[in-house]
Amino acid sequence: MSSPSENSSALNLPVKEIPGSYGLPFFGPIKDRIDFYYNQGPEEFFRARMKKYNSTVFRVNSPPGPFNAKDSKVIVLLDAVSFPILFDTSKVEKRNVFIGTFMPSTNFTGGYRICAYLDPSEPKHTTLKGFYLSLLDKLHKELIPTFCSSVSNLFTDLENELSKNGEANFNAISDKMSFDFLFRLFANKSSYDTIIGGNGNTNLDRWLFFQLAPLITLGLKFLPNWLEDLLLHTFPLPYFPVKSGYERVHAALRTAAAALLDEAEKQGLNRDEATHNLLFLTGFNTYGGAKVVFPALLKYIGTAGESLHHRLAEEIRSVVKEEGGVTLAGLNKMSLTKSVVWEALRIEPPVPFQYAKAKEEIKIKSHDAAYVIKKGETICGYQPFATRDPKVFENPDEFVAERFVGEGEKMIKYVYWSNGRETEDPTAENKQCPAREMVVMMLRMMAVEFFLRYDTFSVETGRLLLGSSVTFKSVTKATKQLFIN
Ligand code: HEM
After folding, report:
1. In this structure, are residues 252 and 275 in contact, taking their beta carbons and an 8 Å threshold?
2. Which of 154, 394, 423, 441 is an S-S bond match for 177, by CB 3.0 to 4.6 Å?
3. So what's the pLDDT on residue 6?
4. How many domains, the chain?
5. Is there a domain that residue 482 lies in?
6. Which domain holds residue 413?
Protein backbone atom coordinates (compact mmCIF):
# COMPACT_ATOMS: atom_id res chain seq x y z
CA MET A 1 0.00 0.00 0.00
CA SER A 2 1.19 3.53 -0.63
CA SER A 3 2.39 5.31 2.47
CA PRO A 4 -0.01 7.79 4.17
CA SER A 5 2.08 10.74 3.05
CA GLU A 6 1.85 9.60 -0.56
CA ASN A 7 -1.94 9.29 -0.29
CA SER A 8 -2.49 12.63 1.40
CA SER A 9 -0.25 14.52 -1.02
CA ALA A 10 -2.40 13.07 -3.85
CA LEU A 11 -5.12 15.41 -2.65
CA ASN A 12 -3.07 18.47 -3.64
CA LEU A 13 -2.23 17.35 -7.17
CA PRO A 14 -4.30 18.39 -10.17
CA VAL A 15 -6.72 15.65 -11.26
CA LYS A 16 -6.08 14.86 -14.93
CA GLU A 17 -7.93 12.77 -17.47
CA ILE A 18 -5.95 9.56 -18.10
CA PRO A 19 -4.41 10.03 -21.57
CA GLY A 20 -4.13 7.36 -24.27
CA SER A 21 -6.50 5.40 -26.48
CA TYR A 22 -7.52 1.84 -27.31
CA GLY A 23 -8.13 2.37 -31.03
CA LEU A 24 -10.79 0.48 -32.96
CA PRO A 25 -12.30 -2.65 -31.40
CA PHE A 26 -10.36 -5.79 -32.41
CA PHE A 27 -7.87 -3.89 -34.67
CA GLY A 28 -6.60 -1.60 -31.86
CA PRO A 29 -5.53 -4.51 -29.62
CA ILE A 30 -3.90 -6.32 -32.60
CA LYS A 31 -2.00 -3.17 -33.60
CA ASP A 32 -0.76 -2.68 -30.02
CA ARG A 33 0.25 -6.35 -29.86
CA ILE A 34 2.29 -6.11 -33.06
CA ASP A 35 3.96 -2.91 -31.78
CA PHE A 36 4.69 -4.57 -28.44
CA TYR A 37 6.26 -7.74 -29.82
CA TYR A 38 7.65 -6.83 -33.21
CA ASN A 39 7.77 -3.11 -34.06
CA GLN A 40 9.01 -1.73 -30.74
CA GLY A 41 9.62 -4.38 -28.06
CA PRO A 42 8.29 -3.95 -24.48
CA GLU A 43 10.66 -1.17 -23.31
CA GLU A 44 10.18 1.06 -26.34
CA PHE A 45 6.44 0.28 -26.46
CA PHE A 46 6.00 1.87 -23.03
CA ARG A 47 8.72 4.54 -23.37
CA ALA A 48 7.32 5.92 -26.65
CA ARG A 49 3.82 6.25 -25.21
CA MET A 50 5.07 7.71 -21.94
CA LYS A 51 6.79 10.42 -24.02
CA LYS A 52 3.85 10.94 -26.37
CA TYR A 53 1.35 11.45 -23.53
CA ASN A 54 3.92 13.09 -21.24
CA SER A 55 2.58 10.85 -18.48
CA THR A 56 3.59 7.71 -16.57
CA VAL A 57 -0.10 6.74 -16.40
CA PHE A 58 -1.98 6.11 -19.66
CA ARG A 59 -4.44 3.89 -21.51
CA VAL A 60 -3.32 1.23 -23.98
CA ASN A 61 -4.15 -2.35 -25.02
CA SER A 62 -2.05 -4.91 -23.23
CA PRO A 63 -0.83 -7.99 -25.14
CA PRO A 64 -1.90 -10.65 -26.09
CA GLY A 65 -5.40 -9.34 -26.97
CA PRO A 66 -7.76 -11.38 -29.23
CA PHE A 67 -8.54 -14.26 -28.95
CA ASN A 68 -6.69 -15.02 -25.73
CA ALA A 69 -8.07 -12.10 -23.72
CA LYS A 70 -11.71 -10.99 -23.83
CA ASP A 71 -10.75 -7.44 -22.91
CA SER A 72 -7.24 -6.05 -23.33
CA LYS A 73 -7.93 -2.44 -22.33
CA VAL A 74 -5.70 -1.43 -19.43
CA ILE A 75 -4.43 1.62 -17.56
CA VAL A 76 -0.66 1.34 -17.42
CA LEU A 77 1.35 2.49 -14.39
CA LEU A 78 5.05 3.25 -14.95
CA ASP A 79 6.25 5.18 -11.88
CA ALA A 80 7.15 4.19 -8.32
CA VAL A 81 4.36 6.28 -6.75
CA SER A 82 1.31 5.01 -8.62
CA PHE A 83 2.50 1.38 -8.88
CA PRO A 84 1.74 0.27 -5.26
CA ILE A 85 -2.03 0.66 -5.79
CA LEU A 86 -1.68 -2.83 -7.29
CA PHE A 87 -0.82 -4.20 -3.83
CA ASP A 88 -3.84 -2.71 -2.05
CA THR A 89 -6.34 -5.57 -2.09
CA SER A 90 -8.94 -3.41 -0.32
CA LYS A 91 -9.15 -1.36 -3.53
CA VAL A 92 -8.20 -3.80 -6.29
CA GLU A 93 -9.30 -7.31 -7.20
CA LYS A 94 -6.74 -9.94 -8.25
CA ARG A 95 -9.14 -12.62 -9.56
CA ASN A 96 -7.71 -14.54 -12.58
CA VAL A 97 -5.12 -11.83 -13.41
CA PHE A 98 -2.00 -13.66 -12.18
CA ILE A 99 -0.30 -13.61 -15.59
CA GLY A 100 -2.28 -10.90 -17.34
CA THR A 101 -5.54 -10.09 -19.12
CA PHE A 102 -6.00 -13.79 -19.95
CA MET A 103 -5.91 -17.00 -17.94
CA PRO A 104 -4.74 -20.38 -19.29
CA SER A 105 -7.30 -23.21 -19.17
CA THR A 106 -7.63 -24.94 -15.79
CA ASN A 107 -6.84 -28.18 -17.71
CA PHE A 108 -3.19 -27.22 -17.07
CA THR A 109 -3.82 -27.39 -13.31
CA GLY A 110 -5.96 -30.49 -12.78
CA GLY A 111 -9.22 -28.57 -13.36
CA TYR A 112 -8.64 -26.24 -10.39
CA ARG A 113 -8.23 -22.48 -10.14
CA ILE A 114 -4.90 -22.37 -8.32
CA CYS A 115 -4.15 -20.04 -5.38
CA ALA A 116 -2.28 -17.51 -7.52
CA TYR A 117 -5.46 -16.91 -9.57
CA LEU A 118 -7.71 -16.44 -6.51
CA ASP A 119 -8.64 -13.09 -5.01
CA PRO A 120 -8.18 -12.78 -1.22
CA SER A 121 -11.98 -12.28 -0.94
CA GLU A 122 -12.35 -15.95 -1.96
CA PRO A 123 -12.17 -18.09 1.21
CA LYS A 124 -10.04 -20.74 -0.53
CA HIS A 125 -7.29 -18.16 -1.07
CA THR A 126 -7.00 -17.66 2.68
CA THR A 127 -6.86 -21.42 3.35
CA LEU A 128 -4.26 -22.11 0.65
CA LYS A 129 -2.08 -19.08 1.34
CA GLY A 130 -2.27 -19.78 5.08
CA PHE A 131 -1.10 -23.35 4.37
CA TYR A 132 1.84 -22.07 2.28
CA LEU A 133 2.86 -19.53 4.86
CA SER A 134 2.90 -22.14 7.62
CA LEU A 135 4.77 -24.55 5.32
CA LEU A 136 7.47 -21.98 4.55
CA ASP A 137 7.75 -21.15 8.22
CA LYS A 138 8.38 -24.83 9.01
CA LEU A 139 10.92 -25.19 6.19
CA HIS A 140 12.89 -22.14 7.29
CA LYS A 141 15.58 -24.16 9.09
CA GLU A 142 15.97 -26.69 6.29
CA LEU A 143 16.50 -24.03 3.67
CA ILE A 144 20.24 -23.61 4.18
CA PRO A 145 21.34 -27.27 4.39
CA THR A 146 19.06 -28.32 1.51
CA PHE A 147 20.22 -25.45 -0.69
CA CYS A 148 23.90 -26.01 0.11
CA SER A 149 23.74 -29.67 -0.86
CA SER A 150 21.85 -28.92 -4.11
CA VAL A 151 24.28 -26.17 -5.03
CA SER A 152 27.31 -28.42 -4.64
CA ASN A 153 25.91 -30.50 -7.57
CA LEU A 154 25.56 -27.26 -9.53
CA PHE A 155 29.26 -26.48 -9.10
CA THR A 156 30.26 -29.99 -10.15
CA ASP A 157 28.15 -29.68 -13.32
CA LEU A 158 29.47 -26.17 -14.01
CA GLU A 159 33.13 -27.15 -13.66
CA ASN A 160 32.69 -30.35 -15.70
CA GLU A 161 31.05 -28.45 -18.54
CA LEU A 162 33.67 -25.71 -18.42
CA SER A 163 36.53 -28.17 -18.66
CA LYS A 164 34.79 -30.18 -21.41
CA ASN A 165 33.51 -27.33 -23.61
CA GLY A 166 35.48 -24.27 -22.54
CA GLU A 167 32.19 -22.64 -21.48
CA ALA A 168 29.12 -23.59 -19.47
CA ASN A 169 25.45 -22.71 -19.97
CA PHE A 170 24.45 -21.61 -16.48
CA ASN A 171 20.68 -21.55 -17.17
CA ALA A 172 20.42 -25.26 -17.93
CA ILE A 173 22.55 -26.18 -14.90
CA SER A 174 20.66 -23.81 -12.62
CA ASP A 175 17.24 -25.09 -13.80
CA LYS A 176 18.24 -28.65 -13.01
CA MET A 177 19.50 -27.63 -9.59
CA SER A 178 16.44 -25.49 -8.75
CA PHE A 179 13.96 -28.22 -9.59
CA ASP A 180 15.78 -30.82 -7.53
CA PHE A 181 16.22 -28.38 -4.63
CA LEU A 182 12.48 -27.69 -4.57
CA PHE A 183 11.62 -31.35 -4.79
CA ARG A 184 13.89 -32.08 -1.85
CA LEU A 185 12.51 -29.16 0.13
CA PHE A 186 8.83 -29.97 -0.40
CA ALA A 187 9.01 -33.75 -0.73
CA ASN A 188 12.10 -34.47 1.36
CA LYS A 189 13.56 -36.60 -1.42
CA SER A 190 15.68 -36.04 -4.51
CA SER A 191 13.63 -36.01 -7.74
CA TYR A 192 16.31 -38.32 -9.20
CA ASP A 193 15.06 -41.03 -6.81
CA THR A 194 11.51 -40.90 -8.20
CA ILE A 195 9.85 -42.02 -11.45
CA ILE A 196 10.77 -38.74 -13.15
CA GLY A 197 14.52 -39.31 -12.75
CA GLY A 198 16.58 -36.33 -13.91
CA ASN A 199 13.90 -35.09 -16.33
CA GLY A 200 11.52 -33.33 -13.96
CA ASN A 201 12.42 -29.86 -15.06
CA THR A 202 12.11 -30.45 -18.80
CA ASN A 203 8.53 -31.72 -18.30
CA LEU A 204 7.80 -28.49 -16.49
CA ASP A 205 9.52 -26.33 -19.12
CA ARG A 206 7.04 -27.51 -21.76
CA TRP A 207 4.08 -27.09 -19.39
CA LEU A 208 5.22 -23.54 -18.51
CA PHE A 209 5.76 -22.64 -22.17
CA PHE A 210 2.26 -23.70 -23.20
CA GLN A 211 0.72 -21.47 -20.52
CA LEU A 212 2.98 -18.48 -21.08
CA ALA A 213 3.18 -18.63 -24.91
CA PRO A 214 0.83 -15.64 -25.41
CA LEU A 215 3.45 -13.54 -23.56
CA ILE A 216 6.52 -14.88 -25.36
CA THR A 217 8.39 -14.12 -28.60
CA LEU A 218 10.89 -16.66 -29.87
CA GLY A 219 12.95 -14.26 -31.98
CA LEU A 220 13.66 -16.96 -34.59
CA LYS A 221 15.02 -15.54 -37.85
CA PHE A 222 13.41 -18.22 -40.03
CA LEU A 223 9.92 -17.80 -38.51
CA PRO A 224 8.01 -14.82 -39.96
CA ASN A 225 6.49 -12.52 -37.33
CA TRP A 226 2.93 -13.00 -38.62
CA LEU A 227 3.24 -16.77 -38.32
CA GLU A 228 4.69 -16.64 -34.81
CA ASP A 229 1.97 -14.17 -33.82
CA LEU A 230 -0.69 -16.54 -35.12
CA LEU A 231 0.82 -19.60 -33.46
CA LEU A 232 1.69 -18.15 -30.06
CA HIS A 233 -0.42 -15.06 -29.40
CA THR A 234 -3.76 -15.48 -31.15
CA PHE A 235 -5.35 -18.64 -29.70
CA PRO A 236 -4.90 -20.37 -26.34
CA LEU A 237 -2.60 -23.39 -26.71
CA PRO A 238 -4.14 -26.75 -25.78
CA TYR A 239 -3.09 -28.86 -22.81
CA PHE A 240 -2.85 -32.30 -24.45
CA PRO A 241 0.76 -32.00 -25.79
CA VAL A 242 2.09 -31.44 -22.25
CA LYS A 243 -0.37 -33.72 -20.44
CA SER A 244 1.88 -36.77 -20.04
CA GLY A 245 4.81 -34.75 -18.65
CA TYR A 246 2.56 -32.92 -16.18
CA GLU A 247 0.98 -36.17 -15.05
CA ARG A 248 4.40 -37.76 -14.48
CA VAL A 249 5.54 -34.92 -12.20
CA HIS A 250 2.11 -34.92 -10.51
CA ALA A 251 2.34 -38.65 -9.75
CA ALA A 252 5.89 -38.32 -8.38
CA LEU A 253 4.96 -35.39 -6.15
CA ARG A 254 1.74 -37.03 -4.93
CA THR A 255 3.74 -39.99 -3.60
CA ALA A 256 6.85 -38.16 -2.40
CA ALA A 257 5.01 -35.29 -0.67
CA ALA A 258 2.43 -37.55 1.04
CA ALA A 259 3.24 -36.20 4.51
CA LEU A 260 2.76 -32.62 3.36
CA LEU A 261 -0.53 -33.50 1.71
CA ASP A 262 -1.73 -35.19 4.93
CA GLU A 263 -1.05 -31.86 6.64
CA ALA A 264 -2.96 -29.97 3.91
CA GLU A 265 -5.96 -32.25 4.44
CA LYS A 266 -5.84 -31.55 8.18
CA GLN A 267 -6.03 -27.84 7.34
CA GLY A 268 -9.29 -28.43 5.46
CA LEU A 269 -7.99 -28.76 1.88
CA ASN A 270 -9.16 -31.38 -0.60
CA ARG A 271 -6.17 -33.72 -1.19
CA ASP A 272 -6.40 -33.73 -4.99
CA GLU A 273 -6.71 -29.94 -5.14
CA ALA A 274 -3.81 -29.57 -2.69
CA THR A 275 -1.60 -31.80 -4.90
CA HIS A 276 -2.24 -29.66 -7.99
CA ASN A 277 -1.65 -26.53 -5.95
CA LEU A 278 1.62 -27.96 -4.63
CA LEU A 279 2.70 -28.80 -8.16
CA PHE A 280 1.92 -25.25 -9.30
CA LEU A 281 3.79 -23.89 -6.30
CA THR A 282 6.80 -26.04 -7.16
CA GLY A 283 6.64 -25.88 -10.95
CA PHE A 284 5.29 -22.43 -11.74
CA ASN A 285 5.74 -20.11 -8.75
CA THR A 286 9.11 -21.37 -7.58
CA TYR A 287 10.75 -23.16 -10.52
CA GLY A 288 9.42 -20.55 -12.98
CA GLY A 289 10.74 -17.77 -10.72
CA ALA A 290 14.08 -19.48 -10.07
CA LYS A 291 14.63 -19.86 -13.84
CA VAL A 292 14.80 -16.06 -13.98
CA VAL A 293 16.21 -14.85 -10.66
CA PHE A 294 19.39 -16.96 -10.42
CA PRO A 295 20.67 -16.14 -13.93
CA ALA A 296 19.82 -12.44 -13.42
CA LEU A 297 21.83 -12.32 -10.20
CA LEU A 298 24.83 -14.06 -11.76
CA LYS A 299 24.59 -11.83 -14.83
CA TYR A 300 24.84 -8.62 -12.80
CA ILE A 301 27.52 -9.91 -10.42
CA GLY A 302 29.44 -11.54 -13.25
CA THR A 303 29.54 -8.46 -15.47
CA ALA A 304 30.31 -6.06 -12.59
CA GLY A 305 33.92 -7.28 -12.63
CA GLU A 306 36.70 -8.38 -10.32
CA SER A 307 36.67 -5.48 -7.90
CA LEU A 308 33.09 -6.30 -6.80
CA HIS A 309 33.97 -10.00 -6.71
CA HIS A 310 36.84 -9.32 -4.30
CA ARG A 311 34.68 -7.18 -2.03
CA LEU A 312 31.92 -9.79 -1.96
CA ALA A 313 34.38 -12.62 -1.34
CA GLU A 314 35.95 -10.71 1.53
CA GLU A 315 32.61 -9.92 3.20
CA ILE A 316 31.20 -13.41 2.74
CA ARG A 317 34.30 -15.27 3.88
CA SER A 318 34.83 -13.13 6.96
CA VAL A 319 31.19 -13.50 8.13
CA VAL A 320 31.16 -17.24 7.42
CA LYS A 321 34.40 -17.64 9.37
CA GLU A 322 33.04 -15.62 12.29
CA GLU A 323 29.78 -17.65 12.33
CA GLY A 324 31.56 -20.98 11.81
CA GLY A 325 29.45 -21.72 8.73
CA VAL A 326 26.62 -20.38 6.57
CA THR A 327 23.84 -19.32 8.96
CA LEU A 328 20.67 -17.23 8.67
CA ALA A 329 22.12 -14.75 11.17
CA GLY A 330 25.31 -14.57 9.11
CA LEU A 331 23.39 -13.93 5.87
CA ASN A 332 21.74 -10.96 7.58
CA LYS A 333 25.14 -9.47 8.46
CA MET A 334 26.37 -9.35 4.85
CA SER A 335 25.38 -5.84 3.89
CA LEU A 336 27.04 -5.74 0.44
CA THR A 337 25.71 -9.19 -0.50
CA LYS A 338 22.22 -8.14 0.63
CA SER A 339 22.45 -4.95 -1.39
CA VAL A 340 23.60 -6.76 -4.53
CA VAL A 341 20.60 -9.12 -4.31
CA TRP A 342 18.08 -6.27 -3.86
CA GLU A 343 19.75 -4.33 -6.67
CA ALA A 344 19.42 -7.28 -9.07
CA LEU A 345 15.73 -7.61 -8.11
CA ARG A 346 15.26 -3.85 -8.61
CA ILE A 347 16.99 -3.44 -11.95
CA GLU A 348 15.50 -6.55 -13.52
CA PRO A 349 12.31 -7.52 -11.66
CA PRO A 350 11.73 -11.22 -12.39
CA VAL A 351 7.99 -10.84 -13.02
CA PRO A 352 7.72 -7.64 -15.04
CA PHE A 353 3.92 -7.27 -15.16
CA GLN A 354 1.32 -7.06 -12.42
CA TYR A 355 -2.40 -6.74 -13.07
CA ALA A 356 -5.51 -5.93 -11.01
CA LYS A 357 -9.06 -4.61 -11.46
CA ALA A 358 -10.42 -1.57 -9.61
CA LYS A 359 -13.01 -2.73 -7.04
CA GLU A 360 -14.38 0.78 -6.77
CA GLU A 361 -13.61 4.21 -8.17
CA ILE A 362 -10.01 4.89 -7.11
CA LYS A 363 -7.99 8.08 -7.07
CA ILE A 364 -4.32 7.37 -7.72
CA LYS A 365 -1.37 9.70 -8.05
CA SER A 366 1.88 9.71 -9.97
CA HIS A 367 4.73 12.16 -9.23
CA ASP A 368 2.94 15.04 -10.86
CA ALA A 369 -0.79 14.38 -11.24
CA ALA A 370 -3.76 12.53 -9.80
CA TYR A 371 -6.08 10.32 -11.87
CA VAL A 372 -9.40 8.61 -11.36
CA ILE A 373 -9.73 4.95 -12.26
CA LYS A 374 -13.31 3.72 -12.64
CA LYS A 375 -14.71 0.59 -10.99
CA GLY A 376 -14.00 -2.50 -13.12
CA GLU A 377 -11.12 -0.98 -15.13
CA THR A 378 -7.96 -3.10 -15.42
CA ILE A 379 -4.68 -1.72 -14.11
CA CYS A 380 -1.37 -2.99 -15.51
CA GLY A 381 1.93 -2.17 -13.84
CA TYR A 382 5.12 -2.57 -15.87
CA GLN A 383 7.56 -3.02 -13.02
CA PRO A 384 10.95 -2.45 -14.68
CA PHE A 385 9.95 1.22 -15.16
CA ALA A 386 8.54 1.62 -11.64
CA THR A 387 11.69 0.27 -9.99
CA ARG A 388 13.92 2.27 -12.33
CA ASP A 389 12.01 5.49 -11.66
CA PRO A 390 14.53 8.36 -12.09
CA LYS A 391 12.61 10.47 -9.56
CA VAL A 392 13.30 7.85 -6.88
CA PHE A 393 16.65 6.26 -7.77
CA GLU A 394 19.81 8.00 -8.93
CA ASN A 395 21.31 6.44 -12.06
CA PRO A 396 18.32 4.10 -12.18
CA ASP A 397 19.50 2.11 -15.22
CA GLU A 398 22.88 1.34 -13.68
CA PHE A 399 23.62 -1.68 -11.50
CA VAL A 400 24.97 -0.04 -8.34
CA ALA A 401 26.15 -2.87 -6.09
CA GLU A 402 26.17 -0.83 -2.86
CA ARG A 403 22.90 1.04 -3.54
CA PHE A 404 21.13 -0.49 -0.51
CA VAL A 405 24.05 -0.50 1.97
CA GLY A 406 23.70 1.53 5.22
CA GLU A 407 21.29 4.47 4.86
CA GLY A 408 20.54 3.18 1.35
CA GLU A 409 18.66 0.25 2.89
CA LYS A 410 15.71 2.60 3.50
CA MET A 411 15.15 2.59 -0.25
CA ILE A 412 14.18 -1.10 -0.33
CA LYS A 413 10.60 0.08 0.14
CA TYR A 414 10.79 0.88 -3.60
CA VAL A 415 11.77 -2.69 -4.51
CA TYR A 416 8.52 -4.33 -5.65
CA TRP A 417 9.52 -7.72 -7.16
CA SER A 418 7.24 -9.76 -4.83
CA ASN A 419 4.05 -7.85 -5.71
CA GLY A 420 4.60 -5.87 -2.53
CA ARG A 421 7.21 -3.66 -0.98
CA GLU A 422 10.40 -5.26 0.33
CA THR A 423 9.51 -3.72 3.73
CA GLU A 424 6.10 -5.45 3.86
CA ASP A 425 5.19 -9.04 4.64
CA PRO A 426 2.96 -11.48 2.77
CA THR A 427 -0.24 -12.45 4.58
CA ALA A 428 -3.20 -14.74 3.81
CA GLU A 429 -5.18 -11.57 3.06
CA ASN A 430 -2.84 -9.94 0.52
CA LYS A 431 -1.38 -11.09 -2.82
CA GLN A 432 2.31 -10.67 -2.04
CA CYS A 433 4.51 -13.66 -2.87
CA PRO A 434 4.53 -15.82 0.29
CA ALA A 435 8.20 -16.61 -0.37
CA ARG A 436 9.41 -12.99 -0.32
CA GLU A 437 11.93 -13.78 2.38
CA MET A 438 12.82 -17.25 1.08
CA VAL A 439 13.65 -15.97 -2.41
CA VAL A 440 15.91 -13.23 -1.06
CA MET A 441 17.61 -15.84 1.16
CA MET A 442 18.09 -18.23 -1.78
CA LEU A 443 19.74 -15.47 -3.79
CA ARG A 444 22.00 -14.49 -0.92
CA MET A 445 22.96 -18.15 -0.48
CA MET A 446 23.73 -18.47 -4.17
CA ALA A 447 26.12 -15.49 -3.92
CA VAL A 448 27.64 -16.88 -0.72
CA GLU A 449 28.25 -20.34 -2.13
CA PHE A 450 29.82 -18.84 -5.25
CA PHE A 451 32.31 -16.71 -3.36
CA LEU A 452 33.19 -19.42 -0.88
CA ARG A 453 34.24 -21.46 -3.87
CA TYR A 454 35.55 -18.93 -6.40
CA ASP A 455 37.59 -15.73 -6.25
CA THR A 456 36.20 -14.45 -9.52
CA PHE A 457 34.45 -15.59 -12.69
CA SER A 458 33.56 -14.25 -16.11
CA VAL A 459 30.30 -14.58 -18.03
CA GLU A 460 28.66 -13.72 -21.33
CA THR A 461 25.02 -12.74 -21.24
CA GLY A 462 22.03 -12.60 -23.58
CA ARG A 463 18.23 -12.88 -23.62
CA LEU A 464 16.03 -15.97 -23.38
CA LEU A 465 12.27 -16.55 -23.64
CA LEU A 466 12.08 -15.94 -19.91
CA GLY A 467 14.80 -13.67 -18.52
CA SER A 468 18.55 -13.55 -19.20
CA SER A 469 20.96 -16.18 -20.43
CA VAL A 470 24.31 -16.56 -18.70
CA THR A 471 27.25 -18.48 -20.12
CA PHE A 472 30.28 -19.00 -17.89
CA LYS A 473 33.59 -18.48 -19.67
CA SER A 474 35.91 -19.04 -16.70
CA VAL A 475 36.04 -19.46 -12.93
CA THR A 476 39.01 -18.89 -10.64
CA LYS A 477 38.90 -21.17 -7.63
CA ALA A 478 39.32 -19.57 -4.21
CA THR A 479 42.98 -19.34 -3.31
CA LYS A 480 42.26 -19.47 0.41
CA GLN A 481 39.86 -22.35 1.14
CA LEU A 482 37.56 -22.08 4.13
CA PHE A 483 37.10 -25.57 5.53
CA ILE A 484 33.57 -25.25 6.84
CA ASN A 485 30.22 -27.04 6.45
C1 HEM B 1 11.86 -17.87 -7.18
C2 HEM B 1 11.43 -16.69 -7.39
C3 HEM B 1 10.01 -16.19 -7.23
C4 HEM B 1 9.52 -15.10 -7.83
C5 HEM B 1 10.26 -14.20 -8.77
C6 HEM B 1 8.14 -14.95 -7.41
C7 HEM B 1 7.31 -13.90 -7.78
C8 HEM B 1 5.99 -13.78 -7.42
C9 HEM B 1 5.13 -12.67 -7.78
C10 HEM B 1 5.55 -11.46 -8.55
C11 HEM B 1 3.89 -12.95 -7.31
C12 HEM B 1 2.66 -12.07 -7.43
C13 HEM B 1 1.96 -12.24 -8.75
C14 HEM B 1 0.72 -11.39 -8.84
O15 HEM B 1 -0.31 -11.78 -8.26
O16 HEM B 1 0.76 -10.35 -9.49
C17 HEM B 1 3.97 -14.22 -6.65
C18 HEM B 1 2.90 -14.84 -6.07
C19 HEM B 1 2.99 -16.06 -5.49
N20 HEM B 1 4.14 -16.79 -5.25
FE21 HEM B 1 6.01 -16.27 -5.74
N22 HEM B 1 7.84 -15.97 -6.57
C23 HEM B 1 8.96 -16.75 -6.41
C24 HEM B 1 9.07 -17.85 -5.61
C25 HEM B 1 8.04 -18.41 -4.93
C26 HEM B 1 8.17 -19.51 -4.02
C27 HEM B 1 9.50 -20.12 -3.56
C28 HEM B 1 6.92 -19.79 -3.58
C29 HEM B 1 6.47 -20.81 -2.59
C30 HEM B 1 7.21 -21.69 -2.02
C31 HEM B 1 6.00 -18.89 -4.23
C32 HEM B 1 4.64 -18.90 -4.12
C33 HEM B 1 3.79 -17.94 -4.61
C34 HEM B 1 2.33 -17.97 -4.45
C35 HEM B 1 1.53 -19.08 -3.80
C36 HEM B 1 1.85 -16.79 -5.00
C37 HEM B 1 0.38 -16.33 -5.04
C38 HEM B 1 0.14 -15.50 -3.79
C39 HEM B 1 -1.29 -15.21 -3.51
O40 HEM B 1 -2.15 -15.77 -4.20
O41 HEM B 1 -1.57 -14.46 -2.57
N42 HEM B 1 6.72 -18.04 -5.02
N43 HEM B 1 5.26 -14.70 -6.71
Report:
1. no
2. 154
3. 47
4. 1
5. no
6. 4-477
